Amino acid sequence: MLAAAGTLPADAPDGLVLLGELGLDGSVRPVRGILPAVLAAVRAGHRTVVVPAGNADEAALVAGVDVLAAGTLGDLVDHLSGRARLVPHVRGPLPAPDPVPDLGDVVGQSAGRRAVEVAAAGGHHLFLTGPPGAGKTMLAERLPGLLPVLDEQAALEVTAIHSVAGTLPPGAPLVSRPPFEAPHHSATMAALVGGGSGAIRPGALCRAHRGVLFLDEAPEFPRATLDTLRQPLERGTVTISRAAGSATFPCRAQLVLAANPCPCASAAGDAACTCSPLERRRYQSRLSGPLLDRIDLRVELPPVTRAAWLASDAAPESTAAVAARVAVARQAAADRLRGTGLSLTSQVPGRLLRERWPVPRTALALAERALDRGLLSVRGLDRVLRVSWTLADLDGRTVPCGDDVAEALGMRLQRVAA
């Protein structure tokens, strides 16, 4: 407008991408989505962008572009007219990421700790059941710390999602650790998956991309809301359509569900439960079969006993120790899957898994009996095979053995308890 009015030379804005919101007082206000906008500008061949001063650190995460920070419209006019040039913004050192909760804080629950390790190693979804105080939330919160730190490309991808959502923490322009999202069970479908009445915003599932989506008290979520997760979890993307257009976001997150075994949620377990068998069945049926079918690992956590509490003086393994094993297992899977475009065992289609990496028939006897008895579907068998490969990777074996298949089957059928 200023160029058209003759206040600035007509060619003054040429080659610039101008981003931001202009206030009535002439200030240039920060906006959401600066990082993906700058990335798009670079892909389109632009090499200079002007952004609000409050967005400068975020924009400077992108390599190969000069970021000019403007605090007011006057700053931009002075730059374009040559009176006072804006210099490219130099981002300061990134702050150290916050420390992660330590797995060593979890008392007892050896099966739960094992399940979290397996979930991290193979990218498997996880369902934890148990009474209040058993450690379901503690275990879920420690899963991101077992995952590898995000590389540069992954960090930019995750940060871009949080930029659009407006959830970047102040002073921390880059998300370098796998995110952890834990929406309340009162969250709407739009809050969980994404939406909005105006600009489309990513929901908790998308914000958990390359990290963990934790749904505590999962049966309290509306069943229809939970079922909207099924296809995005399979595809790794979600498309949100509104009258003004549509947007597609990546959402390759690990799902962790947690639930009490019954509505009364007695901390003492079954012995003190006041629920009838019918009430327990109704409560547990709130999670649909198709959703549960996508969960590879299911573990029931018992109440923490006095004996387990007293035995906690013997320090269990720390997050750092378990994360080191997870990293080795992930590398083994990546080496095996090289050339397929996949990196995690949980991503391998069942048919490809059976054809390229068959498990010895001698190791499959227990799983085949479960299939014959109707305890396991063919799809469920594929998921057991995936977990078996992850267990083999964790233990340094080149092929799963019968013990791996048995352990994977126990986790699938929720017959594993700590």
Automatic annotation (TrEMBL):
Highest taxon of the lineage: Bacteria
A GO MF label: ATP binding
Alphabetical keyword list: ATP-binding, Nucleotide-binding
Pfam families the record matches: ChlI (PF13541), Mg_chelatase (PF01078), Mg_chelatase_C (PF13335)
Stored InterPro entries: AAA+_ATPase, CHLI-like, MCM_dom, Mg_chelat-rel_C, Mg_chelatse_chII-like_cat_dom, P-loop_NTPase, Ribosomal_Su5_D2-typ_SF, Ribsml_uS5_D2-typ_fold_subgr
Domain AAA+ ATPase: 122-305
Name of the protein described by the UniProt record: Magnesium chelatase family protein
The organism's taxonomic lineage, starting at the top: Bacteria, Bacillati, Actinomycetota, Actinomycetes, Geodermatophilales
